[in-house]
Amino acid sequence: MTSRPRFVTPGVRAGIVVTGTEVLTGRVADRNGPWLAEELRRLGVDVGRIVVVGDRPDDLVAALGHLRADHDLVITTGGLGPTADDLTARIVGDVQGRPSTLDAALYDTVRAIVAQLVRRRGLDADPEALDAGSRKQAMVPVGAQVLAPVGTAPGLVVPPAEGRSGPPVVVLPGPPVELRGMWPAAVAAPAVRAVLDAASPLLEDTILLWGTLEADLAATLRRIEADLVGLEVSTCLRGGELEVVTRYPPADAGRVDLLRRTVLGDFPTGVFSTDGRTVDDLIGDALVARGWTVGVGESCTGGLLGARLTARAGSSAYVLGSVAAYHDRAKTSLLGVPPELIEAHGAVSVEVAEALADGARRAFGADVGIGLTGIAGPGGATADKPVGTVELALVAPSGRRRRTVRVPRDRQEVRTRSVTAALHELRLLLGDGG
Amino acid sequence: MTSRPRFVTPGVRAGIVVTGTEVLTGRVADRNGPWLAEELRRLGVDVGRIVVVGDRPDDLVAALGHLRADHDLVITTGGLGPTADDLTARIVGDVQGRPSTLDAALYDTVRAIVAQLVRRRGLDADPEALDAGSRKQAMVPVGAQVLAPVGTAPGLVVPPAEGRSGPPVVVLPGPPVELRGMWPAAVAAPAVRAVLDAASPLLEDTILLWGTLEADLAATLRRIEADLVGLEVSTCLRGGELEVVTRYPPADAGRVDLLRRTVLGDFPTGVFSTDGRTVDDLIGDALVARGWTVGVGESCTGGLLGARLTARAGSSAYVLGSVAAYHDRAKTSLLGVPPELIEAHGAVSVEVAEALADGARRAFGADVGIGLTGIAGPGGATADKPVGTVELALVAPSGRRRRTVRVPRDRQEVRTRSVTAALHELRLLLGDGG
C-alpha cells in the first residue's frame, strides 16, 4: 500500500530471480530476495520485481527474459549446487550468449574445498560423485567473471556477449550465508560497478506506530498528500504494528521531516519509533539505561517471549531468563502461582498473569517480571474466553501494567502477536519513568 | 535442485502475483504464495512462477503480462485495501479488457462491514475517509465475479473480456486470514472451475533425512536415474534436514516406491520420515505413545526449544515446559546446576548440559529432560569453543544421549539449528526403545 508514486525518478532498477522448487512450493521461505532488496536499496538501486521459479529450465529462461526487458541489473540466487539439475549458471550463460566451458583453475579450487569439507566432517562420500559435482560447479560461461566460492559454489557475473544488449546478470548461490559472503565481491565486479555508478543512493525514513488504525493513518497522509508528491511513502501493517516507510533522495529531507512531524502530531501516543529502532531495540536500550533486568513467566507461548527477548545480540545484559510453565503444575512449582488461584480464576486470567509476573520476578531475582497466559488454540476456549484471549501482566520497581489482548484465531498468530503485545506493554512500562 | 524434469507432463499451470512494496523490500515475508502453491498442488495445478511486485502500476501490468503468456490461471494477492493506491483490482480489469465501475450492492456490503468494524473496536475514525475507502473497494471490473469479503476487501474472478484470449485472473486480498477464507469461493467460481477441470491431481511423496550428505544422496539418485525419468524429484537441504519430494501422477506409484526403497536402502539411519511427518510430529507421537512428558532446560536459545516443542497443537499432552536459564544464576536457582560445575567446566560444556537436562527433568517432574547450552554469538566465544558450539544432553527412563553440535556462525542460525538438532536427538532417544 504505497501512496501513488506519481513522479518517482526511474533510477537504477534491479530484478531478482529466486530459483528452487522448495521456495516455489513454499517448503522453504526465501531469505535472499529480501536481503538483496535491502542491500540494493542502500546502494540506491530499486528492486522492480522478484520472480520465483522452480527448477524447470523454461521457467528460468522466461524469468530472465522478463526481467531483462526493464531492469538495469538482474541477480539470480540458487541452483549452483553440485548436482546436474542445478542449471542456473549454464542457462544464464546461454541467455547472455556465452556458452559454458570447464574452468580448470576453478575446478582445482572447488575440488580442494570439497576435499577439505569431507575430511573435516569425517564423511564417507563417494569420490566419483564428488568429482562429478566439482566438475559441474566449475563450468563457467565464456567471458564471465568468477566470484570465489564462500561455500563450495562459485558465483558469476555474466555480462551480455559482445554485440548483445541487456543488463549484466549476477549469479549467486542459494544458501544465505554463502550469498551474503559473496555479495561484496559481486558489488565490486566491474560490470556491476558500472551499473551502480549510475545510481544515486536513496535515504529511508521509518515511522513505527502501535495501536493506530490504518484508515486513520491513511486520512492523515491524504491530508498532506500535496506535500508528498514525488515521495515514495509506503504503509504496512505487520503483526499489529503499522509502518510508514519513505524512500527519498537527500534533497527531499525537508518534506520527509514535514511528514514525520505531521504523523507525530496526529498520533502522539501511537508513534513509538522514528529512528529505525524496533520495539526490541527500544526496550533493550531502556533496560540497559536503567540497569534493570527482566524475567518472564509465560504459558501458551511456550518460551517464545523469552526467545524474542534474547534474539537480540547483547540481551544477556538485561534478560535473566524465562520460565515457560506450560503445565499448570509448573506454574506452581517453579513460579509459586497458588493452585487455588488457578482453580478459582482459570489458568488464563488476569490474576494468574499477575502471579506469573510476580513469580518470574522473584524466581529470577529480576527487576521486571512479565506474565503471559492465554489460549493459543485450537482447543481450550470457553464461552467467555475465546481462542486468542491473552492476559498480560508486568511488574517493575516503577509500578504495574496489565492488559487483555485478543488476537486472531490462529495458533501461530496468537503466539507471535501476544509476544509483540507483551513487548509493547514493557516499552510503555519503561517509558512511564521510574 | 530438481532432478532434470525430462518429460514432465505440461498439465495445468498457475502463476501467482504477490503485490506489496513491503514484501518486495523484505519488510514482510510473503505467506500467501507458498500457501496458494500448496492448495493448487492438491488440485493438481502446478505453480509455474511467482512474481513479487511493489505498488507501481507498470510492474503489476508487466507481471500480469508475463504470467498470462504461459499459465492457465493467474492469481493475484494484495492491493485491495481501502486506499486509492491499492490498484490491483482496477489494473487486472484493464489488462483483461474490463473497465471498472461502482457495484452498488457491494458498496452497501462494504460500508456495513466497515461500520460494524469501527463500532466493535470503538474506533474514532473519519467518516469521509471511511466512505472513500468503501467506495474504492466496491469498484468492480465489468463482468467480473465478486467474491464476498472475508475482511473488508471483496475478491474477484476476472475472465478475459469477450473475444479476448488468456487465462482468468483471480484477485485475492493480502491478509492471509482473508485470502484463506476466500479461497473456497474462488475455487468454486465457474471460470476457475473450468480451468481446474482439466487438471489431474498429482500425488506427492516426501522422504526426510538427517545427517546425510547431499552429495551422497545425489549419487544415489543418479544411480537410479533411468528409473526416474518423467518423475519430478526435488531435493532440498533445510536447517540441516535433507528433503526429497516427488510429485507424480497416480500411475507412477510403483516407480516412486522404488525410489523410496532405494533411498531407505542406501541411508537406513539417515531417513527419518517417509510419510510426511516432521521430526516435531514424530517426537510428539512417540511421547504420546509412551505416555512420557518432557521438560527443557535451555540457555542460549532463550526459550526457542520450548517454543518449538509447543508450536504443535496438542503439545500440552507431553510438554510440561521449559526453563530458559539465560543467566547462570538461574541455572542454579531454578534447575539446580551447581555453581562449581559452571565454574569448573564453563556454562557451555557437556557437564552443564547434562545438569540442565537432569535439572529440567526434576523441576518439571518430567519423564524426559533436555539440556541445551551453547554460544549463539556474536560474543562469548573462546579458543576451543567458537561461536556455534552447542552442547545437547537428554535423559529419559530408557537412558541418556549427549551430543556436541557446531552450527554456522550466525546468531539466529545457531539458535534455530541447535533446536532442530535437539529435536533429532530426542527422536533418536525415543527410537531407542525404552
Task: Offer a quick outline of the entry.
The structure is a homodimer of 434-residue chains. Helices cover 42% and strands 23% of the residues of chain A. Chain A has 434 residues and is α/β, with parallel strands linked by helices.
CATH class of the largest domain in chain A: Alpha Beta
Number of strands of chain A: 17
Strand content of chain A: 15-25%
* Helix fraction bin of chain A: 40-55%
| Individual helix count of chain A | 17
How many structural domains of chain A? Answer: 3
- Give me the CATH architecture of the largest domain in chain A, please: 3-Layer(aba) Sandwich
Distance between the ends of chain A: 39 Å
CATH superfamily of the largest domain in chain A: MoaB/Mog-like domain
Structure report:
2 copies of one chain form a homodimer. The first copy, chain A, is an alpha/beta fold and about 425 residues long. The first copy, chain A, folds into 3 domains: about 10-195, MoaB/Mog-like domain (Molybdenum Cofactor Biosythetic Enzyme, Chain A, 3-Layer(aba) Sandwich), CATH 3.40.980; about 205-275, 2-Layer Sandwich (Alpha-Beta Plaits), CATH 3.30.70; about 280-430, Maf protein (Alpha-Beta Complex), CATH 3.90.950. Helices cover about 40% and strands about 25% of the residues of chain A. In chain A, the strands form 4 sheets. The first copy, chain A, has a 6-stranded mixed beta sheet with strand order 2-1-3-8-7-6, sandwiched between helices. In chain A, a hairpin with a 2-residue loop joins strand 10 and strand 11 (about 240-250). In chain A, helix 5 (about 105-120) crosses helix 6 and helix 12 runs parallel beside helix 17. The longest helix of chain A is centred in the last third of the chain and has 21 residues, at about 410-430. Chain A is globular, with a radius of gyration of 27 Å. In chain A, about 55% of the residues are buried. The model of chain A is unreliable at about 1-10 (pLDDT under 50). Chains A and B meet through helix 1, helix 2, strand 2, helix 3 and helix 6 of A and helix 1, helix 2, strand 2, helix 3 and helix 6 of B. Strand 2 (about 45-55) of chain A pairs antiparallel with strand 2 (about 45-55) of chain B.
